[in-house]
């Protein structure tokens, strides 16, 4: 058994196709197939069901591939540990970010990475929180930016900032005359919400303390779409504070804060327990905090955060 064989089975599992996996690994398909066959012979079991199209793992094969990902991750960790004494931060990084944070952080964060991490090859993808947790545990990504707390003992969290929730209200709605809103006194039947799978959606349910079937039937895939739906159809929605600059001056007149201890969400950098790139973490945390308003960085605001 060798590292290449582990890389090959992970590639086949990713692409579900031997030829595409071979191309991604820079080898011929016969070479990849032969090396995988040798690994299967050594282990005494089949990893892939080759009778299916696309190719898939069987039950035993899925366990082998998942463990191979962790082994390859730890091998990368060893190499990075050896590089840790070098002045620059080298290598590759797979990072994910939830869709309700990505539009506000990524444009400026890429610039920070270019300035502060010029030797790092960083690949960033948008994922919902449930997928982030799955990918972290299988070592398919290195770290992620999500809303917390996750309350998962296998994942470490570094809080970055605390973001208020604000209401966007149509001028024709009865709430429009209010300068501030009370969470407990709102009729949520006229509220538009994000589609299922977004952690932001779950946080809104927790704020409202209401069942999922008490809201408008249409469920949007983005905050921007929710705002447009309210503009065209009335009612209201709730959105995160960092979306505020994206609104036009006219739209900003339709925004209302919550009264008292305003509900907030905690946004954190999360990673596996065995993540060793401390220097990289420090640079990423500093980069993110440099582009976030200072008023959102106060850790005392954590008492107002909304749990998932």
How does the SSE layout of this entry go?
Blueprint: H1 3-15, H2 18-25, H3 29-43, E1 48-49, E2 56-57, H4 59-83, E3 91-97, H5 102-116, E4 120-126, H6 129-137, E5 143-148, E6 155-169, E7 193-194, H7 199-208, E8 219-220, H8 223-233, E9 236-240, H9 249-252, E10 255-256, E11 264-272, H10 278-290
Parallel strand pairs: 3-4, 3-5, 7-8
Antiparallel strand pairs: 1-2, 5-11, 6-9, 6-10, 6-11
Helix pairs in contact: 1-2, 1-3, 1-4, 2-3, 5-10
Quick synopsis:
This protein has 308 residues and is an alpha/beta fold. The protein contains 10 helices and 11 strands.
Structure annotation, total helices:
10
Q: What percent strand?
A: 15-25%
Radius of gyration: 23 Å
Level-2 CATH architecture of the largest domain: 3-Layer(aba) Sandwich
Output the CATH topology of the largest domain.
Answer: D-Maltodextrin-Binding Protein, domain 2
How many DSSP E strands? Answer: 11
The averaged pLDDT comes out at 85
Task: Tell me the span between the first and last alpha carbons.
Answer: 42 Å
Would you state the CATH class of the largest domain? Answer: Alpha Beta
Overall tally of structural domains: 3
Task: Report the sheet with the most strands, covering strand number, pairing sense and barrel closure.
Answer: 7 strands, mixed
């Amino acid at each position: 058994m060798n590292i290449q064989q582990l890389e090959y089975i992970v590639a086949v599992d990713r692409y579900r196709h031997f030829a595409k996996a071979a191309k991604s690994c820079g080898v011929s398909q016969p070479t990849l197939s032969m090396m995988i066959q040798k690994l299967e012979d050594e282990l005494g079991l089949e990893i892939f069901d080759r009778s299916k199209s696309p190719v898939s793992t069987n039950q035993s094969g899925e366990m082998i591939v998942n463990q191979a990902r962790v082994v390859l991750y730890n091998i990368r960790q060893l190499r990075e540990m050896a590089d840790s004494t070098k002045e620059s931060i080298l290598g590759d990084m797979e990072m994910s970010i939830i869709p309700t944070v990505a539009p506000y952080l990524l444009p400026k964060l890429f610039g920070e990475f270019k300035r502060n991490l010029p030797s790092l090859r960083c690949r960033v993808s948008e994922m919902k929180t449930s997928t982030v947790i799955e990918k972290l545990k299988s070592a398919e990504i290195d770290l992620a930016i999500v809303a917390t707390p996750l309350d998962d003992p296998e994942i470490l969290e570094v809080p970055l900032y605390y973001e208020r929730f604000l209401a966007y209200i149509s001028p024709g709605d009865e709430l429009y005359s209010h300068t501030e809103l009370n969470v407990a006194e709102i009729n949520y039947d006229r509220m538009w919400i994000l589609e299922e799978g977004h952690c932001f959606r779950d946080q809104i349910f927790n704020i409202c303390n209401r069942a999922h079937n008490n809201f408008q039937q249409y469920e949007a895939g983005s905050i921007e779409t929710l705002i447009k739906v309210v503009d065209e159809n009335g009612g209201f929605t709730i959105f995160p504070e960092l979306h505020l600059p994206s609104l036009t001056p006219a739209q900003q007149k339709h925004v209302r804060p919550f009264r008292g201890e305003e509900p907030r969400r905690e946004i954190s950098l999360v990673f596996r327990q065995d993540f060793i790139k401390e220097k990289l973490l420090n640079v990423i945390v500093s980069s993110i905090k440099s582009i976030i308003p200072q008023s959102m960085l106060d850790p005392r605001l954590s008492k107002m955060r909304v749990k998932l």
